Predict the structure.
Amino acid sequence: MSHQTPLRLPLLTLSNQYLKSNISNWFSACDEVRRALEEYGCFLAVYDSVSPISDIFHALEELFDLPTETKLCNTSEKPFYGYYGKIPDFPLQEILGINIGDAITAEGVQNFTNLMWPSGNDHFSEIIHDYANIVAGLEKMVKRMVLESYGVEKCYDSLDESTTYLLRLIKYRTPKLDESNVGSQVHTHKTFLSILHQNQVNGLEIKTKDDEWMAVDMTPANSFRLSCYGRRGIFGIEQQQIALSCT
């Protein structure tokens, strides 16, 4: 059973303008990030460097409106890296992973775009590429904060150089009357850090250290959830998510 009252995760302001305005802001934020991850395994971040929210979610609508046979062209030898959808146990969920090369490279995103639109779609490619790099910037910032908070900032360069990115584009459709509203199976992210961004439709639940499921309120629209213990999705209406996994 999950708690009906949404869990109020720590909401941290990680805008570049705020953090660079005063060195004490940076050190304070580093401590807040570490404490949030130690206590909850995740936190919400308000990040003001993202391009217009509507652009990215309109791009996702365009992508998921493509025929299933087109989306099936996105394949991978790694589980859940290609197209994942139309699964009987979880019929609400569709996932497309940008795994052709690194997700933050122009070439990797362009290769994915060419698979979906052989005649090209420069607008989609530009939006996804810009978005992936902006969110990767947030990942780099949080990674540095965690290492500095533990006093091992000297490890940052080697860790950053070994990091690869997978951008997963996710859609949950509205359940039918005879369907369960559980959109995704219970799972734990195995990556060093994961960042989740979604439209303003709540449904995310996380498992606390006390082994209880709690609903998460992910407003405002420019908030991101970083890292987690365990998670699942409970949905009543259509929702879109973007997840950047960093390994």
